[in-house]
Amino acid sequence: MKPASKWLSLGIVLSALLLSVIDVFIINVAIPAIRVGIHATEAEVQLVIAVYLLGYASFLVTGGRLGDHYGRKRVFLLGMVCFTLASCWCGFSHSPLELNIARFIQGVSASVMVPQTIAFIQVLFPDPKERAKAIGWYGITLGLSSMLGLFLGGVLTYFPLYIAGWRLIFFINLPIGIVAVWMGIRYLQETPLPAARRFDLGGVALLTLALFFLIIPLIQGRELGWPLWSILLLPLSLGLFVLFFHNQRVKKSRDRNPLIDTSLFRFRDLNIGLLAVICCFVVHNSYLLASTILLQNGFGFNPLYTGSAFVVFGFSFLLFSVWSIRLVGSLGKWVVLAGVILMFVALGAQTILFTGEHLPLGVLVGLLLAHGAGAGFTYPTLLNVTLKSVPVEYAGAASGIYVTAQQAASALGVAIVGGIFFTVLNHHTGEFRFQAAFRSAALADMAVLAVMGALVCALPAGRINAVALVE
After folding, report:
1. What is the signed CA dihedral for 369, 372, 373, 378, rounded to 10 degrees?
2. pLDDT (tens digit, 9 = 90+) per residue, 12-66?
3. 72 lies in which domain range?
4. Of 168, 188, 208, which closes a domain?
């Protein structure tokens, strides 16, 4: 094993973030092909997205604790190996059930390897200026991987090859995973371990069950005509969430190392910010699901054209993300609010212009640029705004809650707003039923954005020291 520079080490661990985000976005463009390839129902293809996010959300905090307990290099490599193998299983799947089980394992594997990236950044870059630069590369990786995922989903699905394109979107993780594991073994140095802490396995089980009992009925219940089991699971999910928070509060009071530090919820600004985060990511994934289906099935775009169109969205997102990072220090929450307003206006325009038989290229590009700009202003800066009033010693725990809320909200958006899309689609008999379904989903997203805007207005104004939040 050879020592590596900290920047090479950063590149190695950022591969975890790259793969995990690509596998969120690459699915969206390939959804129509996946549905045909494995003869899936609408609910089952919703689950292809949702179960990955559920596995990711349920085990994120536990993934961070595993690195603290067993070593971050070791856990990073374990997560990368499991993620790569799960990706191959997805590619070999022959039924919706098999694919969704593999996708859930993929999500759990992502939750194991990605937290080690943050931990390595904190250890490798103690100098605030260098750490800010490393976090900048973290943000750039987020933007590039989302854009790359959308593009690859279109390219691999479109071109006729010996292997079905939708299977290739999973197999593409294999060479990247092999290289990342080899470089990790050869160059990554193990980081010093903090004091070992016990795992809250009961908390993990309660949170996972609560999320599943909420998401699964919302997706499957709609398609099956709301059978009794789906109706009963929803209040049971609410009860499990209440039990989970009570369980965490009791463990905190007895100093038993809970999964989530409930004392964080005494910070009013954090509570408001987390609600805004939930609104934000409910909109994000549901919009990508509805819009990619609209472009392919409603307007007849091929997957390559659709994926290329969303490169415009990704490029705008990346460009305005970089700008927002520079502005948030002086303007604070107003950067986020500007992004919310821009997304609201772009969505409103789409409900009007994405309605006919044809969609002019200029209209599509212009609205995707505007929507991507709003997302770029919003997503990267929302973390800093949400954690602004949280003391430095709580920053790590608060960040874990933030990311858990982000992934769970993404799954919830696919379930609820995606459910609205497919419900309207199935009940609309007109020629432009995909356009009607998209309009209904977009209006629901606009309502969520309006709530988010009100929440952002309730946050305190003022300057933000972005570097201090990751100390």
Report:
1. 170
2. 889 988 998 888 888 878 888 888 888 888 788 888 888 888 888 778 777 877 8
3. 1-188
4. 188
